[in-house]
Design brief:
The structure is a single chain. The protein is mainly beta. The strands form four sheets. The chain has a seven-stranded mixed sheet. Strands 12-13-14-19-16 form a five-stranded antiparallel sheet, with no helix packed on it. A hairpin with a 4-residue loop joins strand 12 and strand 13. The protein is elongated. The two termini are about 55 Å apart.
Length: about 280
């Protein structure tokens, strides 16, 4: 698109070569004349934004340029609660999910919903309930989580999940996990999710373990009880040993045994659990 080139333009109005418009002065001069070529250029520049955003020009909608730009850079904000929600290309951006009121199912838009342009979606879970949040693909699209293709993903407590569609259609359409696989909570009792979906959790009991040990609630729940947990003593007594047992997908039991294994011993215990 060129700057205005009418003979009565205001030359260099915005800098060298950046001409602009000037107002007319009654009885003295005319306002800058509009050239058909310049008007066509402005129109087509705007139309191309709409097309790239997957929108059909409509005289009835006066927000299409804004909507198309938001689609392309992910500038929308959406909140979702219990129930099923079908996202569209106009939801590209931040999606805040609160499952306090019940399980949430989110159906993604087709990866080519924006005329073949990549679509960014960023999911943030804001509740701490045990209710499930499931994100489903559209049609024959695939969700690629860094290890393999999937038809759905779970959004867990405290998780931030970033997806980006590749713009392709049908089975060639892929929603790729950009960085949500690295969700984490780096605290004394914390967790880290790896690109493969594997979760590493850790913690310690600052008090003394007595008799049959204590039950520890994991920072986040695994999807099943098929995980591994190991424990070590952290003092103050030397020679003691620690053990850990899986109770459920969200709880473990840790205890300490005196040297020689004759009896339980009071001690502080650190543990690491690995699962999915």
């Amino acid at each position: 698109m060129d700057v205005i080139q009418s003979s009565n333009r205001q030359i260099d109005k915005f800098g060298s070569g950046l001409h602009g418009f000037q107002a007319g002065v009654p009885g003295v001069s005319l306002a800058t004349a509009l050239q058909p070529g310049w008007c066509d250029g402005v129109q087509q520049e705007l139309i191309n934004i709409l097309r790239d955003g997957g929108l059909v020009p409509s005289a009835a909608t006066l927000t299409q340029v804004r909507d198309a730009i938001r689609r392309m850079y992910g500038g929308n904000v959406r909140s979702i609660a219990a129930g099923t929600t079908n996202l569209t290309a106009d939801d590209a951006g931040d999606v805040y999910v609160d499952a306090t009121g019940g399980a949430v199912t989110i159906n993604l838009p087709a990866t080519d919903a924006a005329n073949g342009r990549p679509l960014p979606l960023r999911f943030f879970r804001t509740d701490t309930s045990a209710n499930a949040v499931t994100i489903n693909r559209a049609g024959s699209n695939t969700i690629f989580n860094g290890a393999s293709g999937a038809t759905s993903l779970s959004l867990r407590v405290s998780e931030e999940l970033h997806l980006r569609g590749n713009g392709a259609a049908g089975a060639s359409g892929v929603w790729r996990v950009v960085n949500g696989a690295f969700a984490r909570s780096l605290s004394t009792s914390g967790w880290q999710r790896l690109p493969s979906g594997l979760i590493v959790q850790w913690g310690n009991n600052q008090g003394s373990i007595s008799s049959a040990g204590v039950t520890v609630t994991l920072p986040i729940s695994f999807t099943s009880t098929g995980f591994v947990v190991v424990a070590v003593t952290m003092g103050p007594t030397t020679g003691n040993s620690a053990r850990a047992q899986v109770i459920s997908a969200s709880q473990i039991n840790v205890s300490s045994t005196a040297a020689g294994g004759a009896s339980f011993a009071p001690d502080s215990i650190g543990w690491i659990a690995i699962g999915v």
